[in-house]
Amino acid sequence: MDFFNYKNQQLFAENVSVAKIAQDFNTPCYIYSRATIERHWNAFDQAAHSHPHLVCYAVKANSNLGVLNVLARLGSGFDIVSGGELARVIEAGGDPAKVVFSGVGKTEPEIEYALEAGIYCFNVESEAELGRINKVAAELDKKAPISIRVNPDVDAKTHPYISTGLKANKFGIERERAIDVYKYASSLSHLEIKGIDCHIGSQLTEVQPFIDALDKVLALIDELATNGIELSHLDVGGGLGVTYQDETPPAPAEYVSALLDKLTNRKNLKVMFEPGRAIMANAGVLVTKVEFLKQGEEKNFAIVDAAMNDLIRPSLYSAWQNIIQVDESLERESANYDVVGPICETGDFLGKDRALKIESGDLLAVRSSGAYGFTMASNYNSRVRAAEIMVDGDTVHLVRAREELVDLWKGEAVLPE
Ligand code: LLP
């Protein structure tokens, strides 16, 4: 559930009219709802209350400082994949001691930064990375907390680009080799083995693949114990899907309790969750203005002022996101449109074949854009990135100003005469 609703046929973000925000801040712009973010995070946290746990929001979904700050105030942990994301978490008031660091390619400076900041754990993806973390920790005379990401080899049944738990994917360590890799880790002087983690993919709409992965990881935890390696936490990754169209993913509470049901006898095992999309996707919309309507021979096009550089999910994954009118009261004729941006690529579309009642100048909102929207935005076609706005009840906060043209060539130089 989210807080983007119609009142008298006008789309509102919490108590504020979306049309008013567009008027004040111009389009395209992202609008986030604080109440929705908090509601989604709390759904995970409350469902897990009976078990030691930490909800580590996956920063990659939306790394705006305003968003991170809202989560930090709730006491959230954070799942990061770069030094840049760690810097954002710290800048936003997040606690580094609640940070887990995922990703296959951590550099030495990133590891050093994370060790100095005192993060909770490195989620390690290879032996080479164990060696690198050990070396950097030794140089700093510290012990690095680590967890090993195992690849449980389950099919997440999601889009191949966002499926991560199969042997064919680059992520994690195969189950069969995990014991040996843990033994290797325990032989390294500057590592402290803390946990185990897995992440099988994103936008999962069924609970069963999560359960299958958990079963495999729990079996490994027991096998490790018989080898004298005791773990204090289990990180189940993220990946819970959301409703974009007609998907029926389990609610966070249902997902969390299904997993915790497997852990009733393991109260000493702290559980970490890394949700990104389930918290942010439906907490944001992308608002765009119709520039022109164009009748082709086969199709009608609504050319809007947002494009694939603002929201790449439709182009990249053929993702379907709902496109709705900001003002539903307007008397317009209905027609089917491909909603396209101004970028010079055939793949530049936000939605295809959408029945809309629109004219030039009308506002549209692309729903479910809070996750993997702005964070995947680019300056392609030298377009400035959109403004980001956070609504909190009756109040509107600009949490990122629209870029200016000079931002486009910041750091660039022409050649000397
Ligand atoms: N943990 C790890 C290690 C991850 O790789 C990811 C996402 C997450 C947590 C968060 O997953 P979530 O709860 O958001 O599903 N750009 C794609 C999604 C890529 C997800 C990558 N990893 C999209 O727009 O659909």
UniProtKB/TrEMBL annotation:
Binding site for pyridoxal 5'-phosphate: 239, 274-277, 372
Recorded metabolic or biological pathway in which this protein acts: Amino-acid biosynthesis; L-lysine biosynthesis via DAP pathway; L-lysine from DL-2,6-diaminopimelate: step 1/1
Modification N6-(pyridoxal phosphate)lysine occurs at: 60
Entry's Gene Ontology molecular function annotations: diaminopimelate decarboxylase activity
Orn/DAP/Arg decarboxylase 2 C-terminal domain boundaries: 30-370
Enzyme class, broadest EC rank: lyase
Highest taxon above the source species: Bacteria
Source lineage: Bacteria, Pseudomonadati, Pseudomonadota, Gammaproteobacteria, Alteromonadales
Protein role: Specifically catalyzes the decarboxylation of meso-diaminopimelate (meso-DAP) to L-lysine.
UniProt-listed Enzyme Commission number(s): 4.1.1.20
Orn/DAP/Arg decarboxylase 2 N-terminal domain boundaries: 35-281
Residues that, per the record, bind substrate: 277, 313, 317, 345, 372
Key words of the record: Amino-acid biosynthesis, Decarboxylase, Lyase, Lysine biosynthesis, Pyridoxal phosphate
Lyase among keywords: yes
Subunit structure: Homodimer.
Organism: Catenovulum adriaticum
Catalytic activity as recorded in UniProt: meso-2,6-diaminopimelate + H(+) = L-lysine + CO2
Alphabetical list of Pfam families matching this protein: Orn_Arg_deC_N, Orn_DAP_Arg_deC
Methyltransferase listed as a keyword: no
Cited HAMAP family: LysA (MF_02120)
Family membership noted in the UniProt record: Belongs to the Orn/Lys/Arg decarboxylase class-II family. LysA subfamily.
Name by which UniProt lists this protein: Diaminopimelate decarboxylase
PROSITE patterns named in the record: ODR_DC_2_1
